[in-house]
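Sat 14:20. Reprocessing the chain from the morning session after the first attempt stalled halfway. Input below, unchanged.
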Amino acid sequence: MSPHVLVLGGTTEARRLAAELAARPGVRVTTSLAGRVSRPGALDGDVRVGGFGGADGLVRWLREHRVDAVVDATHPFAAAITANAARAAAATGIPAVVLRRAGWTPGPDDRWHWVDSLPEAAALLPSLGRRVFLTTGRLGLAAFAHLSELHFLVRTVEPPEPPMPQDMEVLLTRGPFTPDAERTLLRAHRVDVLVTKDSGGEATAAKLTAARDLALPVVVVRRPPLPADVTTAPDVPSALALLDLGPASRADVCAADTCP
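Finished this time. Tokens:
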């Protein structure tokens, strides 16, 4: 049987990994999406949408679909999914890799304020500015809903839902963004503080460059810790190198009587 790899997706890295795996003869790849984005875009290989029902549900799915390896390529802040994947992999003995791009690192001219949570970011904001560029996603707006004296410019892919700040303007768009465009945006909206999560990657890093150029303070939410004893990879090539797809992939690549 062909090796079957489950990719827990939703990131650029997950999309690239699925494409690499689908291009390999004899390898089957299924990408699982949480379903929070209505138009996720085309993906190589098979796609499933929706939750598994916690770690126990994922264990059942892995066994029923004869999965040989799991790659958790979810967002760095998808802590619940990552925890469930780690428990399910341990319960089944299926090899698992957590694919996590590196986080962002401040430079000498950056004015970053590190916090551990969205509520902590909200508590810090009144001391830093009144016009906030909020780029932490649509699901965490409740943490800022009580800040009625601040104006929020919120950028998300999908429309946000209450509870959310009263004085709020929404930009529905998706990266990548350029430093020039981000500087123009910050100036046009008279932003004086940026709030972001330490997502890492290049697609949305331009806002940090723009904030540095304009000498704006940035509140950065730290990533949640990874479960203990998980195997991690910083990029797609490293994840591929860690995957053990077994001899079945070799047998499928070779035609009859031509394998050395």
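The chain is about 30% helix and 20% strand.
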